[in-house]
Design a protein that fits this description.
Blueprint (H helix, E strand, L loop, with lengths): L12 H9 L8 H22 L6 H29 L4 H8 L10 E6 L4 H23 L3 H7 L2 H6 L4 H24 L2 E15 L8 E4 L3 E5 L2 E6 L3 E4 L6 E13 L5 E9 L12 H5 L2 E8 L7 E6 L3 E7 L11 E8 L2 E6 L2 E7 L12 E6 L4 E16 L2
Parallel strand pairs: 1-2
Antiparallel strand pairs: 2-16, 3-6, 4-5, 5-16, 6-15, 7-12, 7-16, 8-9, 8-15, 9-10, 10-11, 12-13, 13-14
């Protein structure tokens, strides 16, 4: 079963070995850091050129990214030690960020198929992630403001003052680790499984009101005309039924956006971090990003024109970004489905596969079980209705 993939020596193979050979010990002198920065810029341009070309030339991408990852790891260590010296009160937190946990290694690439999606759709999503990640690496190296805004989390820098260089190096390293994973998945033999819905764990058409839900934060959440309606910003609502692998389905009707920063995100499987509860998901975004561990997908994202799949709990981490936003029109009802099966998380809108992510633990242990939640962005109001909600068991259909 794909949810119980065996470990083998495949995932980071060549890149991990090259990183060690290329200098896992970060030099101390500042001039060495400057030399590494120059090396990043040189190799980053090559990575961006490959991203704009033939992504099937994986040998060339791997050969380019091996030294990049080695350099990024060395810079992360160098800047991390420098930051600990400046901010000793945050030393434990910084060391936790610097540490790379051993990643699971796949014997075969897990290809999960649901609905009308075929293997070509999943591979296309992986190649799209690879292209966006390579371009992001180049943008982060060059400190492109638009890339930094999407791929780095500003509250990290606010949490530890003066950490800009460290957090940039860390994100370059982590994005290159995702590149390594994608290269491995695309090169491995595939283990394909088609899955479908099993029994219904919970169905809710809101005829009974909000009995299965709990709301937090500002705005208004109420059942109107047989649908759950959310209005406002920074507000959240959580289904109180916890589950593991499952398919979450619901109707999403964005009614009106009041400002270009409006949008909705859908989280699953979500759990509060130790000492927190789901109230941490409401209000300012940092409370949510450091208080709730989950995957979430953002849809109807106002002026951005894209949809992002992210991970929270250790900040806000980009996993997959896709254009165009499939829910960009207001006044229209979309059928949204979130699928979690082992290390795979997928997002569908009206039956089309939008995101397909395989979690190799770059940002910590993958969420195993939790609740489903909705959050409207802080900063601008979104009015939206939700209906015909279902949590269904997921079953393989070989």
């Amino acid at each position: 079963m794909i949810g119980r993939i065996c470990l083998a020596a495949a995932l980071y193979g060549g890149l991990a070995a090259a990183a060690v050979a290329g200098g896992g010990e970060a030099p101390e002198p500042k001039e060495d850091a400057r030399a590494m920065e120059e090396k990043l810029k040189e190799d980053g341009k090559a990575a961006a050129a490959l991203a704009r070309g033939d992504l099937n030339n994986m040998d060339a991408i791997r050969k380019t990214c091996e030294p990049l990852l080695g350099t990024a790891r060395a810079l992360t260590e160098t800047y991390g030690r420098e930051l600990i010296g400046k901010q000793p009160d945050s030393a434990d937190w910084i060391r936790g960020r610097m540490e790379e946990k051993a990643a699971p290694e796949f014997e075969k690439a897990p290809v999960v198929l649901y609905g009308k999606a075929g293997e070509a759709d999943v591979l296309d999503r992986w190649r799209g992630q690879l292209r966006e990640s390579l371009l992001a690496v180049h943008g982060l190296i060059e400190e492109d403001k638009s890339v930094v805004a999407e791929w780095m989390y500003a509250s990290d820098m606010k949490k530890v003052r003066g950490g800009d260089r460290y957090f940039r190096a860390e994100q370059i390293r982590n994005t290159l680790r995702e590149v390594s994973k994608l290269l491995t998945l695309l090169a491995l033999p595939r283990e394909t499984v088609r899955v479908g819905k099993g029994g219904t764990i919970l169905g809710d058409d809101f005829a009974g009101g909000m009995a299965n839900w709990k709301a937090y934060g500002g705005g208004k959440v109420a059942v109107e005309e047989g649908k759950m309606k959310m209005t406002g910003q920074g507000c959240t609502v959580w289904c109180e039924k916890e589950t593991g692998d499952a398919i979450i389905s619901f109707d999403f009707t964005p009614l009106a956006q009041h400002g270009g920063a409006a949008g909705a995100l859908f989280a699953f499987p979500a759990s509060p971090l130790p000492g927190k509860d789901f109230s941490a998901s409401a209000g300012p975004m940092p409370n949510y990003n450091y208080g709730i561990s989950t995957y979430h997908v953002s849809l109807c994202r106002g002026a951005s024109g894209r949809t992002n799949l992210r991970r929270t709990g250790c900040g806000l981490k980009m996993l997959s970004t896709v254009r165009p936003d499939p829910c960009r029109e207001t006044g229209r009802t979309y059928r949204v489905e979130l699928l979690k099966y082992g290390p795979t998380f997928q997002v569908f809108v009206d039956g089309a596969l939008i995101h397909s992510y395989v979690d190799a633990g770059v940002y910590g242990d993958p969420p195993a079980k939790g609740c489903f939640g909705i959050r409207h962005f802080a900063g601008a109001d979104l009015d939206a209705c939700y209906d015909n909600f279902e949590i269904a068991a997921i079953v393989p259909r070989h």
